Predict the structure.
Amino acid sequence: TALSNILAVAVQQRLSAWADRAEGGSSRRSAMGLMALGTAAALALLLARPKQIQVIGGCFCMIGVTIMGVQPFLNAIAMERVRRGRALNYGLARGIGSVCYALMSVLAGGVLRRFGNAGLLAAFIGLNLAGLCAVAKFSGREEETASAPRGETPGMGGLLKRHRAFRRFLAVSVLLYTAH
């Protein structure tokens, strides 16, 4: 874990420096590259033999780098959207993040109990692939969005009135969070 932390800082700093110099979409490409690295490391870990200690250690280290290194790039993608004029409700985003963290903790515990370590690796691969698809949908182009005037964020009441399914999701998430 300590080696993963050190490597994550080094990798993230180098990728950030490159992203700052590169043309549009570089945070997206950096996030996707790290997620692909984590997916490949998890797949290699699934295929590794128990006696291949160096391979297993290297895979765990790369997975740690992915987990710790990708978040700043995802934040940069979101901030780029805000810079382009997309409204963002920070409180709502943080709340959804907390609920999702709680949900993933419960799910990870269930996967570990039912399928063991291999199940966690398979879930990690699946989540990384879903993340890759989600990040790939973000455009690297510099177009301005017209969804909301700059600085104006939709209120929580308006959001809840417009999105019935989201209200149900939020209620279930809150109940799940309080029960976990």
